[in-house]
Amino acid sequence: DAKTTQPPSMDCAEGRAANLPCNHSTISGNEYVYWYRQIHSQGPQYIIHGLKNNETNEMASLIITEDRKSSTLILPHATLRDTAVYYCIVRPRGTGNQFYFGTGTSLTVIP
Amino acid sequence: KAGVTQTPRYLIKTRGQQVTLSCSPISGHRSVSWYQQTPGQGLQFLFEYFSETQRNKGNFPGRFSGRQFSNSRSEMNVSTLELGDSALYLCASSLTNPGLTNYGYTFGSGTRLTVV
After folding, report:
1. What is the pLDDT confidence band of residue A104, given thresholds at 50, 70 and 90?
2. For A53-62, how does the pLDDT look when each residue is reduced to its tens digit (9 = 90+)?
3. 3-state secondary structure of B83
4. Which residues in chain B are closer than 8 Å to A94, comparing Cβ atoms?
5. What one-character-per-residue DSSP string does A9-65 give?
6. Which of A20, A94, B95, B114 supports an S-S bond with A73, CB 3.0-4.6 Å?
7. Contacts of residue A79, Cβ cutoff 8 Å, sequence gap at least 6
8. Measured between alpha carbons, how far apart are the two ends of chain B, in Å?
């Protein structure tokens, strides 16, 4: 699987947009970008995924650059409950559910 | 509907013992995966089952094994426990054949195993 690079930690003020970057410069054409988050002592939670188009759901937006070498997860109005470790994962379609989570970004939302 | 249920929530075992962890997937989900999470290694894939067949296996010793039943419930077993097996063990389920879907899947809250 392609490796991803994320900053180890970020802070964001409550109510502001949190923009979490991810670099996946070796991504190949059939690999999707997934984002999960893990709140302390809970299992990871699926947020969003995409291939090459930008995606939006009720939780977040995913912006993928045109060359697909990087992406940004956007939480439009961060709340204290968004404090968590955010994982960016790339995975080829058709390889089952094996995910390589990496070390993620620890996001702290500050009141 | 109920989420992924893992039992027990916490467990303390002694070195050399064996342990069995249980996972009940979301109703209708047929794929179950297991992950180990430790502070040093992060989240690591153990194995994946679909329709009672192991589809994929991570790089863990043979002491780690699993199975899936006809109702999609899954168990994992760790024999001859070592101190390094202390971890949060997470189970995740998804709806369909994992090779045909791009959907995310749902994790349980995990079983925290402590080996003393």
Report:
1. very high
2. 899 999 999 9
3. helix
4. 99-100
5. EEEEETTSPEEEEEE-TT--TTEEEEEEEE-TTS--EEEEEESSS-EE-SS-EEEE-
6. A20
7. A14, A15, A109
8. 37
